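TA notes, week 10

Several of you asked for a full example with nothing omitted. So below is the full record: structure tokens for the whole chain, then the designed sequence directly under it. When grading your own attempts, check the secondary structure regions first.
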């Protein structure tokens, strides 16, 4: 699609030709075009290959500086290019960026292979490891350096460096094809959300929605050059508006549009063939690498360690979760005359919550204004715990007009880094919420962190406030928990920094941070009416805190069903997988039935055909990570609210925050994360607090400890 420059032939006019001049190395997004990204990526790939070649052929004996630190410092240009590229692809992709994504995907897979399949560099790492293990060595490695070396050796072996030449050639083909298919899948998931959008002609069919929501749906229709109203699909199966729509037929249509995404209803966004090919290729690659299946391959580098440990966890939680969901369904079914169906669940659950707690999202939203939630909620809790403050930097620009920038100041007055907030949905932005770094913290490179949070809130009408649902408030706290993991990082090496930890540990800090959303001292500050400033009354806050534990049967079951599907696809050999696209839906049904999770009233949080976590890459065979990390989360919350509490503060104090920061948040992967947890808690995590939180105590059996 673009003319490629010759190696190292990047003109000075290209914005990537020199490091960013803005504070904290914030990219100058305004100057960047897609052809310039393509040109700089080509140059960056060549430049890092040359750096790796220099490491591999260095005649000097391997040492920390000429091998480990040289690897850590390589690829400066490519890192800047890919950071910008992936940010734009995720948050504001157009056709040109999407085409470049498809073009680059196999090249990036081959580039990663060029490092991790290089036996010469691996030999230098092994020699360094052997020297470090020699008792006669005068200068043993520093602990963080030893951890870095161990991680590199593990990653090289895991990637297949010890395979023979012919096997490596096959592996390279697998990696290139898998990466390309993951890119295609992720793009089709976005298309499927667009294809499945529900068009409503008559406002009467939208009874139950408030004026602000109706206005947003009218704008969504206008953006598509259509009359009436458009309900855009969200990434999970469950659609938020289903809880408010009175018309049962509209709820059914919305539910069907959601669960049939990618199944062939719309030909252009049919993902079934991709699901099958990805599952098969991953299985074949795993066997080439000496593993029984892909799930085993993934588990080996996670804190779980084995697929058996993951199965034990999921198997322990599923029966009581499904039993609770069945009981909830029976209660909700009594509320209507028609047979109770999946599309009735959210509506009746919201009505039951209103009857029981006299509280619903429509009543809450006027008290949940975005800026106040951020400043007096999300940021305030961080100040109380860690002493940091966030100061707006309107002089600094993000990658879109509505992206906002804050400077993060530590308690000693020193700048920690930058935080960017991208809160609104827009065309070309993928669904869901996420955190990523624009710059990784590193003492070796002298980099301070630049961290981004993405949400997908519907923009308000011009001049109107942004009012959130309660789920959006929790998401804002969750994602800022990830941001803190990046912002508070205090390590030497960038590849060990912040959230660069095993996938089944990365969700732990973010899940812990959710508890501050309902903390009395926090919610009393931010939950105030956007016009009058009146606080949400104490009774309503108490009810909200109680209501947050309602519906755990549904919530746990829909999550577990998705995690079980992920494992079902990835715990098979290639010959055991279905071959035809029309078999995908039946495979799902049978897999969930075998796991004891066949309750159709609760669909999986993600069906396979739009399970972007898994088939778009990143969480493949690892979606269990959320519940695995929640064991640590629930156990840590118990520590915060008991041992770490000072009086009635529930752990919201600087002593607790400093311990969290020193022992865990600042450490990244510079030591074993489970060791960091043990340093924090004084022992391994126990599963009991999670079972109590989710109402599963009565039905789950087994050991009361989770470790590696």
């Amino acid at each position: 699609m673009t003319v490629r420059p010759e190696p190292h032939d990047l003109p000075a006019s290209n914005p990537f030709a020199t490091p960013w001049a803005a504070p904290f190395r914030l990219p100058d997004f305004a100057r960047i075009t897609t052809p310039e990204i393509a040109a700089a990526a080509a140059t960056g790939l060549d430049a890092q290959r040359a750096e790796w070649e220099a490491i591999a052929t260095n005649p000097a004996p391997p040492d920390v500086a000429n091998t480990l630190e040289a690897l850590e410092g390589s690829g400066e240009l490519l890192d800047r290019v890919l950071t910008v590229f992936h940010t734009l692809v995720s948050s504001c992709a157009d056709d040109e960026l999407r085409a470049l994504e498809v073009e680059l995907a196999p090249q990036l897979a081959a580039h990663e292979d060029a490092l991790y399949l290089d036996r010469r560099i691996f030999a230098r790492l092994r020699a360094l490891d052997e020297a470090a293990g020699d008792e006669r060595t005068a200068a043993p490695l520093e602990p963080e350096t030893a951890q870095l070396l161990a991680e590199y050796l593990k990653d090289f072996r895991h990637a297949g460096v010890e395979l023979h030449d012919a096997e490596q050639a096959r592996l390279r083909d697998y990696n290139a094809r898998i990466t390309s298919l993951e890119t295609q899948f992720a793009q089709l998931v976005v298309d499927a959300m667009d294809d499945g959008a529900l068009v409503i002609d008559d406002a009467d069919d939208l009874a139950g929605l408030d004026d602000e929501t109706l206005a947003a749906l009218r704008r969504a229709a206008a953006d598509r050059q259509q009359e009436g109203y458009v309900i855009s699909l969200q990434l999970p199966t469950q659609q938020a508006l289903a809880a408010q729509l009175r018309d049962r037929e509209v709820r059914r249509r919305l539910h069907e549009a959601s669960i049939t995404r990618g199944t062939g209803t719309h030909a252009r966004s049919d993902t079934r063939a991709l699901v099958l090919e990805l599952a098969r290729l991953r299985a074949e690659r795993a066997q080439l690498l000496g593993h029984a299946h892909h799930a085993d391959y993934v588990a080996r580098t996670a804190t779980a360690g084995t697929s058996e440990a993951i199965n034990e966890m999921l198997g322990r939680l599923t029966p009581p979760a499904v039993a609770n969901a069945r009981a909830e369904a029976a209660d909700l079914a009594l509320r209507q005359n028609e047979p109770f169906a999946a599309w009735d669940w959210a509506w009746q659950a919201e009505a039951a919550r209103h009857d029981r707690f006299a509280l619903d999202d429509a009543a809450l939203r006027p008290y949940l204004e975005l800026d106040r939630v951020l400043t007096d909620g999300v940021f305030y809790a961080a100040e109380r715990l860690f002493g940091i403050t966030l100061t707006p930097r309107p002089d600094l620009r993000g990658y879109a007009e509505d992206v906002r920038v804050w400077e993060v100041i530590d308690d000693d007055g020193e700048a920690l880094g930058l935080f960017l907030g991208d809160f609104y949905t827009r065309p070309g932005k993928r669904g869901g919420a996420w955190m990523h770094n624009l710059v990784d913290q590193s003492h070796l490179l002298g980099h301070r962190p630049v961290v981004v949070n993405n949400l997908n809130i519907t923009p308000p009408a011009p001049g109107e406030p942004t009012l959130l649902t309660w789920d959006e408030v929790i998401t804002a706290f969750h994602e800022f928990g990830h941001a803190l993991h990046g912002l508070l990082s205090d390590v030497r090496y960038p590849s060990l920094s912040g959230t660069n930890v095993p996938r089944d540990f990365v969700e732990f800090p973010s899940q812990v941070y959710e508890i501050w959303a309902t903390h009395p001292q926090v919610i009393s500050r931010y939950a105030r009416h956007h016009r009058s400033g009146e606080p949400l009354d104490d009774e309503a806050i108490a009810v909200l805190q109680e209501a947050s534990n309602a519906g755990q049967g549904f919530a746990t079951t829909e999550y577990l069903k998705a995690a079980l599907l992920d494992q079902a696809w990835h715990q098979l050999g290639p010959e055991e997988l279905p071959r035809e696209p029309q078999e995908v839906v039946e495979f799902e049904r049978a897999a969930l039935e075998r796991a004891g999770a066949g309750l159709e009233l609760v669909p999986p949080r993600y069906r396979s055909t739009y399970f972007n976590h898994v088939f778009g890459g990143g969480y493949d065979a690892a979606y269990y990570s959320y519940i695995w990390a929640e064991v640590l989360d629930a156990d840590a919350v118990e520590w915060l609210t008991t041992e770490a509490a000072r009086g009635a503060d529930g752990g919201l104090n600087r002593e607790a925050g400093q311990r969290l920061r020193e022992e865990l948040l600042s450490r990244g992967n510079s030591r074993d994360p489970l060791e960091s947890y043990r340093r924090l808690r004084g022992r391994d995590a126990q599963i009991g607090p999670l079972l109590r939180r989710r109402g599963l105590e009565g039905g789950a059996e087994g050991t009361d400890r989770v470790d590696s």
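Residues 1-7, 699-708 have pLDDT under 50 and may be disordered. Use that as a sanity check on your answer.
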